Amino acid sequence: MLLQLEVVLFLISFFYILFFLGDRLFLVYKRKKTAQLEKEEKSILRAKIREDNEKLENAVIKNNQKKSKKKQNKQSSESIKSEVQKTVITQEQGEGLRETAKRAQIHISRGYFESARLLIVEGLALKKEDKELNLLLADVYEREKKYQNAAYIYKDVIDIYGEELYTLQRLGNIHVLLDETQKAIEIYEIAQLKDKSNTEILDILAHLYIEIGEFKKALKYAGAYLKEKPRNAEKLSIKAYALEKLGKTLEAIKCYELVLQVQPYNTEIQDRVKALEKKQNEAEQNDAKSLQSTPVQDEKNSF
Questions:
Q1: Is residue 118 domain-resident?
Q2: What domain range is 113 assigned to?
Q3: Residue 231 burial (10 A CB sphere; 0-12, 13-18, 19+)
Q4: Contacts of 81 (CB under 8 A, 6+ apart)
Q5: 4: which of 19, 206, 227, 271 lies 20 to 30 Å off by Cα?
Q6: Each residue's pLDDT tens digit in the chain (303 positions)?
Q7: 105 within some domain
Q8: Is residue 274 part of a domain?
């Protein structure tokens, strides 16, 4: 009788353990399944957001392309401005756009470019020519290295709002990043006329003209920069290099020496000065020899 009771208790304990383990395993399976479903739902949601974003973005780009075709057909600036004025929004909608721009700016600063672009494009759907939102969208494209898209938007903003300094500088920088040096120069030249003492623009123009071998213009902009910041070693070096390439060796040496006043341990400049001094001495010696040989040649000719 006692043995039978022990067997019954053993079986009850055994089945309880099986039930407990089964229940635990079922809970673990359920949690994993739930987590997997949530992950799939999030993936579907992200894909949907991306799809909606692309649709809105393509709509904005198509609208910009239409404007570009109108420009190619020589539509006047007055008609472009009248088109801009067609979008009329309420004060409340305008405040909403500004709030959207702030939120987009926060997303951009945190590196959330996809969500920032979604906010921007939704705002542009309400007012497609909004300058702040267009500039933010161009900024996103820059950060994503979609430079052609950014350039397209900057050009569109310039067409609508005119040649403002900030937009010109951004567009010029895009052309630099695209290795479109001549286009970059054209844009920065326009920007420089609007702010002639802007050292950032003068700096870029000096470098760009050195890059394409136009040393007179590089000298011009380096010189203009040095009027604002006379002890800038980099611009002094550019000026000296341009003088050297223009064959003005003595002036180049003097300019390189000014660099050494700012950077006395710059061995590269020290070597450059030595090489130019040697070149100048050889040129002077050759000139002296040619002067000495001239009378002798004249005497021979007389006989």
A1: yes
A2: 46-60+96-144
A3: exposed
A4: 160
A5: 19
A6: 656 666 667 677 766 677 777 777 777 766 765 566 455 544 544 554 556 556 656 666 666 666 555 555 554 444 444 444 557 888 898 999 999 999 999 999 999 999 999 999 999 998 999 999 999 999 999 999 999 999 999 999 999 999 999 999 999 999 999 999 999 999 999 999 999 999 999 999 999 999 999 999 999 999 999 999 999 999 999 999 999 999 999 999 999 999 999 999 999 999 999 999 998 898 888 877 777 765 545 544 544
A7: yes
A8: no
Two structure tokens written together for 28: 């673990």
Overall residue count recorded for the chain in this entry: 303
Amino acid at position 14, single letter? F
